[in-house]
């Protein structure tokens, strides 16, 4: 067993940490307060879409889907993804920015495996 | 994969012990070119989100078949007539808006037969494949929560000075921090070993390790977050740090995607079988 992170994973970890520092942690409170306001019940925080686009531009989307899924995947193994999910776990709502949130990841995996376009 | 819409997974039911998925009562009945679905689901995470457009529903297509081939999974667009969101549920008071957790009624919901995934009776098979990665992803994120809790409590120890000296000089505080650092690293390495095995031999072969991390990681995170809350005092239970919400989220994961008891039962059985076979050699 060798749990050393690959160069690909290390490079993405650095990029993801930087993304969290610059774009997520400074607004963590603001997003939480938005969702706590009863007037915003079941409404999406308006800034999320632009964050998703930023993550896409940075090549940080869909890193959860293993390389065995071919073109749909970012090509990482579970071992390479683990430290990335750990970084996302530090802010409860952040996984969705990277399209790595439950339950959608499981559903996407099912559709990638068994679905027809 | 574009992240334009969100989705929900409808498996758990309020009326039956859904930790044993063979109990599920939602009926998926064939009718001409369609299936008609009737049942009640809850803890459908993500279903409250206005962007949630599609659900994967688990139900039974054959109540008389052997236990593990009664179930099927089917795609149901959220706007299908007969699908009604009854209410958004809360977890220790957190609604987790906007994605939320919904209770949903399925009343004569009709979808084309082509919406069935893989084939009749193969729902269990899909569930097993689906939940392995889901479980390890939850565990990876829990490590992140616990790690952040450790960092928050460490910072706090040099800021506060009860009874004349800073918290970091108290041996009980150092022990809490030391234990937390050990337990986080233990769980992290166990999660990495499960990830490694999934990569090398597949999710099915890695099922014992997946069970182990699902038993160990939420409990580890709860312990670490609890210590952090204790060290922070009043600030720890309020909303000025993420700790209280972390605690709620970690506690749920002792139940979500299979309660600890189910994973222990399966792991225990599998471990016993392994050693019975070994001793027969």
From TrEMBL, chain A:
Residues 8-117 form the Acyl-CoA dehydrogenase/oxidase N-terminal domain. The keyword Oxidoreductase applies. It comes from the Bacteria. One of its GO terms (cellular component) is cytoplasm. One of its GO terms (biological process) is fatty acid beta-oxidation using acyl-CoA dehydrogenase. Keywords: Oxidoreductase. It holds the Pfam family Acyl-CoA_dh_N. One of its GO terms (molecular function) is flavin adenine dinucleotide binding. This is Acyl-CoA dehydrogenase family protein.
TrEMBL record, chain B:
GO terms for cellular component: cytoplasm. One of its GO terms (biological process) is fatty acid beta-oxidation using acyl-CoA dehydrogenase. Its cofactor is FAD. Residues 8-109 form the Acyl-CoA oxidase/dehydrogenase middle domain. InterPro entries: Acyl-CoA_dehydrogenase, Acyl-CoA_Oxase/DH_mid-dom, Acyl-CoA_Oxase/DH_mid-dom_sf, AcylCo_DH-like_C, AcylCo_DH/oxidase_C, AcylCoA_DH/oxidase_NM_dom_sf. Keywords: FAD, Flavoprotein, Oxidoreductase. Residues 121-270 form the Acyl-CoA dehydrogenase/oxidase C-terminal domain. It comes from the Bacteria. GO terms for molecular function: acyl-CoA dehydrogenase activity. It holds the Pfam family Acyl-CoA_dh_1. Belongs to the acyl-CoA dehydrogenase family. This is Acyl-CoA dehydrogenase family protein. It comes from Lacinutrix neustonica.
